[in-house]
């Protein structure tokens, strides 16, 4: 059925004389007053061990459980960014990036550093993984975040500006305070949902809770009821 739909679309395009041309998108960051401003944020979401082992996720093994190959993601990502300077991407899981980085030639590393310096590639959150906020001890959360930040600082001379906790099952004051305001992040993106939406929907799940009330006012906690597109 899907193939028939695609074939029909192609045939209609040929008969109707539809032209396909390259479009240079305006990727500059600005708000257009009076309009709904939609921000598409290409980002990584590679679990550092979940349904498969860390090694299986990285090399793409055991795909009968979960189709994922982080190594291929990074290879294709860097190639795509180098092809078009309008493209931007944010990478989250330092554990995978560090492993990939150690396998690259000096030439490739130089190109990646150029991408980081130009702002095409940005590291956010910066921890070795996107840790859960409920079960880990706060010392472990701090340690794994510190380890990732040190790698980014040593290799690229940069520090992540934004926290990115879009997948934990519930949110804690520890994340927003110790690993947000206290390390001077400019913002923290979560998948929390505003009270108004919760009341409208009439459904409050454990994963979608309110941001903590005792967060430092210098930190912007950004609830992101995001629509994630799997491509």
UniProtKB/TrEMBL annotation:
Domain of life the protein comes from: Eukaryota
InterPro entries: Glyco_hydro/deAcase_b/a-brl, Glyco_hydro_38_N, Glyco_hydro_38_N_sf, Glycosyl_Hydrlase_38
Coiled coil: none
Pfam family, one: Glyco_hydro_38N
Residues annotated as domain Glycoside hydrolase family 38 N-terminal: 37-180
Signal sequence extent: 1-20
Keyword Cell membrane on entry: no
Plastid in keyword set: no
Alphabetically ordered keywords of this record: Signal
Biological process annotations from GO: mannose metabolic process
GO molecular function: alpha-mannosidase activity
Record-given protein name: Glycoside hydrolase family 38 N-terminal domain-containing protein
UniProt source species: Carnegiea gigantea
